[in-house]
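Help wanted!
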Amino acid sequence: MSEALCREGAAWVSAVTGTRWVGVIGLEVHAQLATNSKLFCSCEVRFGAPPNSLTCPVCTGQPGSLPVLNAAALGLAVRTALAVGADVAAESKFDRKHYFYCDIPKNYQISQYDRPFCTGGGIRLASGRFVRLTRIHLEEDAGKAIHDRGEHTLVDLNRAGVALIESVSEADLETPEEAVEYLEALKEIIRYAGAGEADMEKGQLRCDVNVSVRPEGEAWRTKVEIKNLNSFRHVREALEYEIPRQIEAYESGESARLPRQETRLFDASAGVTRTMRTKEEARDYRYFTEPDLPPITLTEAFVERQRGLLCELPQARRRRYREELGLSEYDARVLTGTREVADYFEAVARLCGRPKEAANWVANDLSRALADPEVAAGSIDELPVKPFDLAELIELVAAGTINTTGAREVLGLMVAGSGSPREIVAERGLEQVDDEASLEAWCREALEGREQVAADVRAGRTKAIGAVVGPVMKASGGKANPQRVREILLRLIAEDDQPRP
Amino acid sequence: MTDPERDLVRHTAALARLELDEAEVDRLAPQFAAILRHFRVLESVEVDDAEPMTGASGVRDVLRADEVRPSLAPDAVLGNAPRSSDGFYVVPKTVGGEE
Ligand SMILES: [Zn+2]
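Answered by r_m:
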């Protein structure tokens, strides 16, 4: 962004003209549905299989083959629609969208044009802004064309025919940050709905951006489409480049620079968008009804069955965690990161009856273990620590059997698969030491040669006591009850102050 | 012969990535015109009161269970292609297509 533009909240303000510009952003998001087989044939859906090993006459477009709709894909699509509050159509159909490219063997993609399975709905951002969804429709994926291996293009059709939903938003977003927040929320909903993993790295979530700019309060102008966005970061960076580019073009007043309706590609290494230099005719997909697929009725019973399979969504969970369980916004956010973690946390909280402690352990220690490459757990469900075990550990701490330091050690052993917390505590003698005589002996030892600490405490700086608690805990092998240690230390220092007989 | 019909032939060919020379455009333009004349007859039928049709057979709701069946062997599929290499179809370089 040049110095002539300055970001003020959601607006870009021109230093030259004083105009306040805002972005107008809409997103088209393709998400892969988590089905076993493709949308219209029984070929397996698998990432990383040898090229062209998962194809058949249907997904390679052989003459005479007939597509048949995958019932599971329809169910997952409807579940996603319900999760974003969309209206599910009573009847839907498929259409052929024609284009000629090497990744699409039939020369058309089976998609939905004028009768998508749902319309409306939307996603609310943290700011309160409601981003409307125009529609979500079902379609088949294209194959993969590889251009960077030699002088020819290589084509792999394993992905051709995989079930996708395309979610089209209204141009209700204004900033790069909002665009990313919307994408994260949509990804979260797709995952919670169980509709897909929405992993961008695996290409399960792909996004095209439509963006234009306008002076605040004015009508929107020519929009530009940006493609080739492979991560949320790319979406943000592309918009951070493209919005000022368009504003500066308008501010320059040079007609040659004015944004025109076009597709631009994001160049991630340079952080810029560039005109797609292909001779592209105006979009003309010649849609017509797919004659090989009869229409589908989405009965109320079917829709309600899908609703029943939908779990509580992340936004609702976060609100409940804050309002009913008294958790912080931060913890609520960490715990709802994935449905598995949220379900896990809720199971622990239910079993031990201590939601705040459960939140701490799951959001901190367990999340750390999960992120540890040595633990090699893909998701929280794969950890050897089950909700029942963690609840037991929390109860041991609450009952004073072990202290928090000891509990951390126990958890480490639990993650390594060494057994239940009770077993580990008993085997390793990790019970907290409450015995007054032992504690006092450690405390006296630690106070020796630390007169300054005692003096500080006497002068009212009780916090100074921490410098002695550490050595006591160390002497006890981490087993001393820190609360009792603190009390004894304060007592000893106070006694020491009394005139000796 | 009017120019719009020649343009239509060129546009349709471009969409299908077909290259036509002027002689071919000359030959196809009147054929397109004849076909479109037939469609104009159909277009003149009053259909405002008719429900849009979604199929001719009357069949509805044909679905299959989400079950995997074996795919074709790569060799068998690629054997039908003019050119293949290392399990891939090999086609002329086509960077920057649609979608
Ligand atoms: Zn197939």
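OP: Thanks! One thing I noticed: Residues A 38, 41, 43, 55-56, 58-59, 161 surround zinc ion (CB under 6 Å).
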